C-alpha cells in the first residue's frame, strides 16, 4: 500500500504579498490579508480535488510486487491506482533499507524484459516489481530475440511482455547501445504524464528509435 502525503506549499502570490503586509500599516492590510487567505484556500481546494481524482484513475497497465496476470478473482492479481512514479520510488527506498550502507542517491532503477509470458509467472520476483500491460508506440517487439523492431503495417500499438524492474546500486552511465524509452501515463506526452524510462535492446542505433518517437504508454486513450 502506498500512502501519499501532500505537503501544501504556499502559492507564489503569498510570498510576494505577505512580506509587504508585515511592514505596512494601512487600511489596505486587512483587504490584502483576506486576499491572501482566499488564494491559499483556493489552492488547497484545487490540490485536494486533483489528488482525489487521481486516486480513482485506473489504467490497463499493472505495477505489482506480486504480479500474476489473470481474472480479478485470482488472489495474486493486484491492480494499483495510477501512482507508478511513487510506486517505483517506494521500491527504491525499500531496497535501500534492506541493504545496509546503501544511499538512496546511488540507487537507480534497472529493468529486464522477460521472455516468459504473463500466464507462466506464478511467483513474485525476489526483488523489484513486475510490470505488465505497457503499450509500445512507434515500434514493434521481437519476442524471440528480445529487441525492438519496426512496427507492423497498420498496427499502432504493440503490447510489451512482462518487464522486471528492480533497483541496483550503480551510478554508471547507461550503455549507449540501448534505447532509453520513456514511459507515459497517457498518449499525450507531457511532463505531467511522464513516469520514468526503461532501457530496451535494439539491433539498430538508438537514434533510429529516437527519430521514430518510440515510447511506452500505460494507457492508449
Spans of at least 5 consecutive residues with low confidence: 1-26, 53-61, 64-81
**Overall average pLDDT:** 74
How would you sum up the global shape? globular
CATH topology of the largest domain: Hypothetical upf0131 protein ytfp
Distance between the termini: 26 Å
Succession of helices and strands: HHEHEEEEEEEEEHE
Tally of individual helices: 4
Oligomer: single chain
Number of domains: 2
Care to count the β-strands?
11
**CATH class category of the largest domain:** Alpha Beta
Counting helices, strands and paired strands, the structural category is alpha+beta
Q: Report the C-alpha radius of gyration, rounded.
A: 22 Å
Helix content: 25-40%
Give the name of the CATH superfamily of the largest domain. Answer: Dynein motor C sequence, barrel region
The CATH architecture of the largest domain would be Roll
Strand order of the largest sheet: 7-4-11-9-10
Largest sheet: 5 strands, mixed
The share of residues in extended strands comes to 15-25%
Description:
The two termini are 26 Å apart. With 221 residues, the chain is α+β, with helices and mostly antiparallel strands. Residues 1-26, 53-61 and 64-81 have low confidence and may be disordered. It has 2 domains: 12-55; 62-217, Hypothetical upf0131 protein ytfp (Roll). A 5-stranded mixed sheet has the order 7-4-11-9-10. A 4-stranded antiparallel sheet has the order 1-3-8-2. It has helices at residues 12-23, 29-55, 84-98, 206-212, and strands at 62-64, 107-113, 129-132, 135-137, 140-142, 147-149, 157-159, 163-169, 179-184, 194-200, 215-217.
Amino acid at each position: 500500500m502506498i500512502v501519499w502525503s501532500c505537503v501544501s506549499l504556499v502559492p507564489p502570490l503569498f510570498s510576494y504579498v505577505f512580506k509587504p503586509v508585515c511592514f505596512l500599516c494601512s487600511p489596505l492590510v486587512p483587504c490584502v490579508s483576506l486576499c491572501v487567505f482566499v488564494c491559499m484556500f483556493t489552492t488547497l481546494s484545487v490540490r485536494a480535488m486533483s489528488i482525489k481524482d487521481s486516486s480513482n484513475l485506473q489504467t490497463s497497465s499493472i505495477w505489482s510486487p506480486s504480479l500474476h496476470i489473470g481474472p480479478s478473482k485470482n488472489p495474486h492479481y493486484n491492480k494499483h491506482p495510477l501512482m507508478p512514479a511513487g510506486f517505483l520510488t517506494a521500491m527504491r527506498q525499500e531496497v535501500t533499507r534492506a541493504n545496509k550502507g546503501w544511499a538512496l542517491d546511488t540507487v537507480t532503477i534497472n529493468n529486464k524484459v522477460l521472455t516468459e509470458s504473463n500466464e507462466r509467472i506464478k511467483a513474485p520476483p525476489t526483488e523489484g516489481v513486475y510490470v505488465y500491460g505497457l503499450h509500445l508506440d512507434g515500434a514493434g517487439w521481437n519476442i524471440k530475440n528480445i529487441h525492438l523492431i519496426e512496427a507492423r503495417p497498420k498496427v499502432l500499438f504493440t503490447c510489451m511482455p512482462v518487464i522486471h524492474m528492480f533497483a541496483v546500486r550503480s551510478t554508471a552511465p547507461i550503455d549507449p547501445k540501448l534505447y532509453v524509452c520513456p514511459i507515459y501515463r497517457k498518449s499525450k506526452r507531457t511532463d505531467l504524464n511522464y513516469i520514468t524510462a526503461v532501457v530496451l535492446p535494439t539491433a539498430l542505433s538508438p537514434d533510429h528509435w529516437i527519430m521514430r518517437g518510440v515510447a511506452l504508454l500505460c494507457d492508449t486513450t
